[in-house]
Recover the amino acids of this structure.
């Protein structure tokens, strides 16, 4: 049994990195997990930082994470215990940052239409499938080269094994 | 095999004869850019077993995003960066006040035609106006690049934007660019290379060309570029003579030798055409860049403060156009002007533009990013309305969730500050 169960926080299209992690903190908050987690989604959803529980997932629409390259837009979610972001599509730097920091990112356009906040979903990474609202959704596997980085838990642990 | 300019740049950077869209290639960039985030990257870098940067001469570091430092915490960040730069022997280091990374690296000839840059900054597509490849990356990737000199990239599909005709008076490259983003949306070029072409391009100044490539970040592009022409070479020649007189000719010859050009039969996944003559003054309305409307439809909106600057629109022609509007007037709204570099500041002062702006009541800031991402030097109060020449207007971007940001060309920003309301300069009484 490779399925894991998760509670959903649901958001819309074009959520940008400024509302995920405000720019005013980018040069003073980088490492401190507690502080990173406290500012997660600060200008998008004021209830998120207090309400999020380890293992929760974010389900969103198109172009999640557009805007700045700031990596804290990924690491603040990791610090908050977010297991995965499942979106219809991702902005490219955000997608890379997620892979490089061990945040699971899944592209699945259908799921965003099927669930709302507080829904429960299951992820099967071995089969590339999502289970929600009594339905099964499949998602594309990552390219081989990228899967190795994800398997290592991010680009830094990956390189530790290489350099 | 025929290739786009981007494909040729990536083929060279990955040591291959050719590449095609969808391939994953390992590139060795000529330049790796970081700025105020350098200390944070160094912290990640120290988690790796490599003690020294593999190619320190390929790094470029600027202090620009919170410069001069607004708090002791920011000042400590800068001090850590200076120490790292010394330890690692990084020559391409630019101090507080020199200006914004993207402007400074072009002026200093750190990058030029045919070269490849990966930058820990999302506006790294900027460099394409010189015929270079530039793309944004994250901090962990920058640390990996410092250690290994290499990174994987997917060769992007390409979009060609063909520009014909001439802009009307009072319409600028900013209007053209946000017009394009409004048409195609913030994900219109997601994961793609945007290549600009067409006879209209030749009439755009260097300062204007950089607006186009810089803001393709706002359309989701991986990189944006155009072919170097006589205008590019003249700008490089003139600029390098000022910034590096000791080897300007040598550097120019190097760039001429490196320059790449797309094949005439290269394949583009998307073709888009724009007639410059049909572009009208546009604004991006709160709270997304692709929420684009004609200025005329939101004219008369109250304005509390204006901001002219950033890597998008803080160059000499931008400040000249604002000064022309403000000259002899008294501003009703506050106006903050931050030149993109010390060279821009010096030229703007010499030309009398700074005097015009200050006499009208404007404030001049230290060359750098200013309040663009809400760090310092002019952040907004709740409820304030800002008209800005920057590149992003996301909620909270300039430091306060309940503020509104409109994006426009610098002359519109200046005119709106004169009137205290959104207005085109041509409509000022």
């Amino acid at each position: 049994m490779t399925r894991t169960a998760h509670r959903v926080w649901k958001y819309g299209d074009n959520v940008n990195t400024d509302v995920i992690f405000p720019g005013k903190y980018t040069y003073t908050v980088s490492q401190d997990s507690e502080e990173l987690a406290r500012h997660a989604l600060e200008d998008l959803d004021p209830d998120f930082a207090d309400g999020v529980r380890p293992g929760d997932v974010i389900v969103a629409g198109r172009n999640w994470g557009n805007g700045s390259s700031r990596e804290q837009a990924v690491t603040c979610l990791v610090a908050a215990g977010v297991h995965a972001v499942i979106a219809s599509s991702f902005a490219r730097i955000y997608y890379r940052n997620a892979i490089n920091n061990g945040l699971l990112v899944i592209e699945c356009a259908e799921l965003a239409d099927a669930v709302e906040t507080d829904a429960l979903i299951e992820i099967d990474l071995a089969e590339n499938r999502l289970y929600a609202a009594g339905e099964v959704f499949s998602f594309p596997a990552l390219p081989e080269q990228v899967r190795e980085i994800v398997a290592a838990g991010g680009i830094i642990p990956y390189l530790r094994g290489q350099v | 095999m025929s290739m786009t300019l981007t494909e040729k740049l990536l083929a060279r950077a990955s040591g291959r004869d050719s590449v095609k869209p969808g391939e994953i290639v390992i590139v060795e960039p000529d330049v790796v850019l970081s700025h105020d985030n350098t200390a944070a990257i160094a912290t990640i870098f120290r988690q790796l077993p490599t003690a020294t940067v593999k190619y320190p001469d390929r790094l470029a570091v600027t202090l620009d995003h919170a410069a001069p430092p607004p708090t002791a915490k920011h000042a400590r960040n800068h001090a850590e960066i200076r120490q790292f730069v010394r330890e690692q022997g990084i020559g391409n280091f630019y101090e507080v006040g020199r200006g914004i990374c993207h402007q400074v690296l072009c002026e200093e000839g750190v990058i030029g035609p045919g070269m490849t840059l990966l930058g820990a900054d999302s506006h790294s597509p900027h460099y394409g106006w010189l015929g270079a490849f530039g793309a944004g990356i994250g901090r962990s990737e920058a640390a990996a690049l410092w250690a290994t000199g290499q990174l994987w990239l997917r060769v992007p599909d390409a979009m060609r934007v063909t520009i014909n005709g001439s802009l009307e008076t009072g319409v600028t490259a900013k209007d053209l660019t946000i017009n394009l983003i409004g048409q195609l949306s913030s994900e219109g070029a997601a994961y793609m290379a945007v290549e600009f072409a067409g006879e209209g391009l030749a009439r755009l100044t260097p300062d204007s060309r950089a607006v186009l490539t810089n803001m393709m970040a706002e359309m989701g592009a991986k990189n944006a570029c155009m072919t170097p022409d006589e205008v590019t070479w003249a700008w490089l020649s003139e600029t390098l003579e000022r910034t590096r007189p000791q080897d300007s000719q040598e550097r120019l010859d190097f760039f001429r030798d490196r320059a790449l050009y797309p094949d005439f039969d290269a394949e583009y996944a998307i073709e888009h055409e724009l007639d410059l003559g049909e572009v009208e003054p546009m604004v991006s309305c709160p709270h997304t860049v692709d929420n684009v409307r004609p200025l005329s439809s939101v004219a008369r909106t109250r304005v509390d403060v204006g901001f002219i600057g950033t890597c998008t629109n803080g160059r000499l022609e931008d400040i000249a156009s604002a000064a022309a509007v403000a000259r002899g007037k008294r501003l009703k709204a506050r106006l903050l002007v931050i030149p993109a570099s010390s060279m821009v500041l010096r030229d703007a002062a010499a030309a009398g533009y700074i005097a015009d702006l200050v006499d009208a009541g404007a404030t001049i800031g230290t060359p750098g990013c200013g309040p663009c991402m809400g760090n310092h030097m002019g952040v907004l109060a709740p409820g304030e309305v800002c008209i800005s020449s920057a590149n992003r207007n996301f909620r909270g971007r300039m430091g306060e969730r309940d503020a509104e940001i409109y994006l426009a060309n610098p002359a519109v920003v200046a005119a709106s500050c004169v009137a205290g309301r959104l207005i085109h300069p041509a409509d000022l009484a």
Q: What stands out?
A: Residues 285-427 of chain B form a domain with the Aconitase; domain 3 fold (CATH 3.30.499.10). The radius of gyration of chain B is 21 Å. The first strand of chain B starts at residue 24 and ends at 27.
